[in-house]
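Below is our example:
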Amino acid sequence: MKRSKRSVNYSKWGYIFIIPFFITYFIFSLIPLLDTIRFSFFEYFRSGMRIIGPNFIGLANYKALLDSDMLRYAGNTMVLWSLGFIPQIIVAMLLAVWFTDKRTKMTGLQFFKVVMYLPNLIMASAFAMMFFALFSTNGPVNSILLDLGWIKEKIDFLGTPFGTRAMIGFMNFLMWFGNTAILLMAAILGINEEIFESAEMDGCSPFQKFTLITLPLIRPILTYTLITSIIGGLQMFDVPQILTNGQGSPNRTSMTLIMFLNSHLKSRNYGMAGALSVYLFIVSGILCYFVYKMLEEKDPTGMMREKAKKNKKKDVTLNEK
């Protein structure tokens, strides 16, 4: 008699182990998301001691937001994000290339990584409070500049739109450039050294190696960094909220979309808050899609192109014969 072999199916255990995640996601993420979308179509707010709604009003909340200052606050958000992200990615890339270059022979690399990452460990609220104290009219920065004789009158750093925006951008830069630099360093160190050695033997300059080898091969990490930064920029709240005391001063030039959303939540206007959340969700998705498509590269090393050229030459040779 032949003994029947009993096969053990382990695939079901994978589904069993991921059930807790899906239960948690369903309760704490999916249901609130769907509820937010539902509230965006209703008139639902508090007037004094009386609660109005929920009354279905269709797209009225979305239209009211377009007629409000939402687009202006969206512009503020993009300006503040750009002031922090552009120097962040430039400095992070320079540090990553410098620290991973074998010719520099730098020692204590782990120490520098820790120092760069330290600002990321400080809470954004504490960071904002520290800068508010340092750069206030009676703060130590003004006192030092007066003692050195570099200025004759105290500077109101937070009294102008440029000063406030520059301060917020500088804080965002300091908090995140270390994290970005470490990500880019890991990506560059993951590139095979033989590729760089072959490029050097072919006479490539350092600039050519960076533009033709390093940048294409770290494209996935650059895409991840840009997408997460865009999402974080659209959710910018704590630094401008604390630095401007929630007013977006001066003249609401530092008011972000999430601060605008928070004002609706404070007034218990859940319908408008839901509609604004949906707008943010749609804009985030569109921006991330375009960034992904722009940075998508199916053949970063050029191997497929070279192979196609060789095959084409072979075909031409055979046809001639």
